[in-house]
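Predict the 3D structure for this chain.
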Amino acid sequence: MGVTAHYIDECWRLKKLIIGFKHVSDHKGQTISRVLLDVLADWRIEKIFCVTVDNATANSFALRRFHGQFSLVSDDALVLDGEWLHMRCSAHIINLIVKDGLTDANESVDAVRNDVVYVRGSGNRLISFEQKVESGRMTRGSLPLDVTTRWNSTYLMLSTGLKFRVAFDKMETEDKLYNDYFMEVGDKGKKRVRPPQYADWKAIERLGRFLVIFYNSTLVVSASTSLNAHKCYEEIVNIATNLLALSESTDHELKDKAEEMFKKFDKYWDGLKNINKMLIVATVFDPTKKMVLASLCFDELYGKDSLEGKAMYDSVMSVLRSLFKEYGARYGKEAGGKSDEAKTNNSGSTPCSRELSMIGTDLHDDGLGYKRIGRRYKEMPNEIGVKDNRDELDIYLKEGVENPDMMAGVEYDVLSF
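Done. Predicted structure below.
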């Protein structure tokens, strides 16, 4: 069992460490929980926000046991008493759905795969069967061969193969060696699947409508060295809404498959209404989105001004309030935490250097009772709390979202904010 820790260091940079690679004697929840507890004890880790695991039943049982035992480590071992401790792995859920879809279209996928294998192995023999495409002429390098254990590579193979469909059809009618190739026995002692027919290409087109949804999302949620927690809920909603849209298709096969996939997707998340709220909280703490994107997601899923959407909104706000209250109790000034000003003064420098105005630095003070209003006012905020009556969470949510003008390909740095 591999155990990877993600955390944010004192300089607000995302860090990732593999802290355990342990032999697990069996797949029982009790064993998994014990190994995880041992790894954390080895590293003297006494605080956990979430634990992300795949959807195996044993993992759910393991985290229930882990929750009860780890909560005894310290008073603040878990956040909100571990109510949101169990995080389901987005990438794993996507993988489960896609594998089901690929299995259903297995024969058609094999037919196209054999086409690609033939093209890649035949060099320039295909010069007479060229087909103009956006990227240029068909060559060996134009058609990527998939890695059977990586479904995203299968999607790339199929989507590229579709561009050359006309050329493949032409090869079947004009190239004897191409047809002879499909009569040969394959690597596993079985005759190769026939060249792709009309029904196969239609099946691949339908499959592509699904795979593009999951492909784009998996690029986001599979990131392991860059920050992506604040992007996951948006991708979950992207998948759900696109599947719901395909469920309205007039193509009955497309419609049935979309409905089936959505049911599985919803089930794997234990129902989108019951999704781990920390995924939404992470989105809210992206200052370019806040609750605006979350509200849009609720409208897309449940309908504008719907009761379900309002219930989700209120639920997320309740979690935000609870988090703010708990963090305030643990780390606020009343709990002995340093103020931001004190932290800045003690550090000796600030993360971003700024030009300081030098006006007034030559003012005199004779020490004989001379007073200045400005100096007195500077002391007031710390003495009586001269500030906005709203708390920090209110201020953050009610201020406008950040809308930076970023260069193409450059992402907003959430952690630097």
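The chain has 16 helices and four strands.
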